[in-house]
Amino acid sequence: VQLVESGGGSVQAGGSLRLSCTGFGDGHQHYAVAWFRQGPEKPREGVAAFVLSDGSTTYEDSVKGRFTVSKDNARNTLYLQISRLTTEDTAVYYCATSQMKGYEYNYWGQGTQVTVS
């Protein structure tokens, strides 16, 4: 399983970005795809999780209303739309998959850097 994130970059506060995650449509069993981030000198935190079977999505409280997860079925791509960016959103963003409900996220991408100034 090779997950690949893209779409990061440098943006001004108040702007928006859309991150992409591909690679989970590889024939392996995946239960959920999640987005995590790790800011400078901060622990990694989960920000959103998407259940592939029914499309249900959960968000970490601090990002609700600004982060939106969507999926393009034709491209087997998961997106993370981030709006009203703040400097606190500066982080490396990762997507990861878990194979069954309740299992840990054990496949990870290399991450994409988001820098907000």
Detail the topology: elements first, then pairings:
Layout: E1 4-6, E2 9-11, E3 17-22, E4 32-38, E5 45-51, E6 57-59, E7 67-72, E8 77-82, E9 91-98, E10 107-108, E11 112-116
What best-fitting shape do the alpha-carbon axes yield? globular
**Amino-to-carboxy terminus distance:** 34 Å
Backbone structural class: mainly beta
| Largest sheet data | 7 strands, mixed
Low-confidence stretches: none
Number of strands: 11
Can you count the helices? 0
**Helicity level:** under 10%
Q: Please provide the ordered H/E string of secondary-structure elements.
A: EEEEEEEEEEE
**Rg calc:** 13 Å
**Average of the residue pLDDT scores:** 95
Beta content comes to: over 45%
General description of the model:
There is one protein chain. The chain is mostly beta strands and 117 residues long. Helix content is 0%, strand content 48%. The chain contains no helices and 11 strands. It has strands at residues 4-6, 9-11, 17-22, 32-38, 45-51, 57-59, 67-72, 77-82, 91-98, 107-108, 112-116. Strands 2, 4, 5, 6, 9, 10 and 11 form a 7-stranded mixed beta sheet that branches. The chain has a 4-stranded antiparallel beta sheet with strand order 1-3-8-7, with no helix packed on it. Strand 5 and strand 6 form a beta hairpin. The protein is globular and about 40 Å long.
